[in-house]
């Protein structure tokens, strides 16, 4: 996580907003904003911590996948930068672009490689640095996001990912988008300019509270798992009201839905691995616990994964 913290009160000095408005509607009270840290630096730090925790050397990695939509460079990929930082000389590395679903989609991709017997050990990172894509004069979006990274190591084993569902609906891409650069060139006489994040907040809200319970139910049904067996639902940390609504639709108690957006805001692809790592380090995850992860974001994209810890 970046060092620099920005509170809701700090934002209220820049745009017409308040701690009360932001906290009531989103559950967010502060976020970290990258000043010195680059996306690849945050990703490499998260990766080092995950490798250390798993007792895996960088040289043992076969594959590095990074879920991100805000890498430092258009090319090379963040994953290649991380590979270089770690010295993971035997790995192949590339990024997966699925916005806030990026970590989940990357993890499911790695699992498919492992299940197919192509690779044995891989690293998945979710990192985003959306602060550089935000219009800091737009109060409807600038209060929602933070920067950060989280990572996990996956190895061939009977435990871990049991089943997963990934979905997308490209007909709704306009609901949440960011133009990388406007069209500027020699012929139109304009210089390319940076684009900013655009969001239709209410459409995102409606999409999330419908599709997240649907795909969680699908993953449970297809794996023959009773919802009561699930210890935690670790959802993308966009907004506590979305999570409350999902819990209600699934008829599950709120204490099964851990949250930390209060401290970090919505860190996009990083929210799920950051929360998973916090819970693991706090000793909340025990062997054989069944956990559902669910992400949703621009694309639109969404998905759910059933894990046995
Ligand atoms: N502070 C104060 N007032 C604000 C702010 C702000 N930061 N932002 C908007 N407002 C104002 C609006 O201008 C509007 O004022 P008006 O009535 O005078 O026109 C009023 O608040 C209500 O605006 P709405 O957009 O209708 O607010 P809403 O209640 O829908 O809440 C929110 C906005 C929190 C974004 C909500 O739509 C939401 O939770 N959407 C989900 C989107 C989300 O979580 N996105 C995260 C990124 S996407 C992802 O991770 C997948």
Description:
- By secondary structure, the protein is of the alpha/beta class.
- It is built from ten helices and twelve strands.
- It has helices spanning 8-12, 19-26, 39-54, 78-86, 102-115, 139-142, 201-223, 240-250, 261-264, 271-281, and strands at 5-7, 30-32, 63-67, 92-96, 121-128, 148-155, 160-168, 176-178, 197-199, 230-235, 290-297, 301-308.
- The strands form four sheets. A four-stranded mixed beta sheet has the order 4-3-5-6, sandwiched between helices. The chain has a four-stranded mixed beta sheet with strand order 7-12-11-10, sandwiched between helices.
- The model has no long low-confidence stretch (mean pLDDT 97).
- The structure holds acetyl coenzyme *A (ACO).
- Residues 17, 21-22, 25-26, 100, 139-140, 143-144, 176, 199, 201-202, 204-205, 238-239, 241, 266, 296-297 line the site of acetyl coenzyme *A (ACO).
């Amino acid at each position: 996580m970046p060092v620099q913290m920005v509170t809701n009160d700090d934002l209220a000095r820049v745009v017409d907003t308040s701690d009360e408005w932001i906290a009531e509607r989103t559950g967010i009270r502060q976020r970290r904003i990258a000043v010195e840290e680059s996306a690849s630096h945050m990703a490499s730090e998260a990766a080092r911590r995950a490798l250390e925790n798993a007792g895996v050397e960088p040289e043992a990695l076969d594959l590095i996948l990074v879920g991100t939509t805000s890498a430092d460079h258009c090319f090379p990929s963040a994953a290649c930068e991380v590979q270089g930082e770690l010295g993971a000389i035997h790995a192949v590395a590339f990024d997966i672009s699925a916005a806030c679903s990026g970590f989940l989609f990357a993890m499911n991709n790695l699992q498919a490689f492992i299940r197919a017997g192509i690779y044995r050990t891989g690293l998945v990172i979710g990192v985003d640095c959306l602060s550089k894509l935000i219009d800091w004069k737009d109060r409807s979006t600038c209060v929602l996001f933070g920067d950060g990274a989280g990572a996990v190591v996956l190895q061939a084993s009977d435990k871990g990912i049991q089943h997963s569902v990934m979905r997308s609906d490209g007909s709704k891409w306009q609901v949440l988008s960011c133009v990388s650069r406007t069209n500027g060139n020699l012929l139109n006489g304009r210089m390319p300019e940076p684009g900013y994040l655009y969001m239709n907040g209410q459409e995102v809200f409606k999409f999330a509270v419908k599709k997240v319970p649907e795909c969680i139910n699908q993953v449970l049904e297809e794996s023959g798992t009773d919802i009561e067996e699930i210890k935690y639902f670790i959802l993308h940390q966009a907004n506590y009201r979305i999570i409350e609504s999902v819990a209600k639709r699934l008829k599950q108690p709120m204490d099964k839905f851990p949250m930390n957006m209060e401290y970090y805001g919505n860190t996009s692809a990083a929210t799920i691995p950051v929360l998973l790592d916090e819970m693991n380090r706090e000793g909340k995850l025990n062997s054989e616990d069944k956990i559902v992860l669910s992400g949703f974001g621009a694309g639109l994209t969404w998905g759910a994964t059933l894990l046995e810890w």
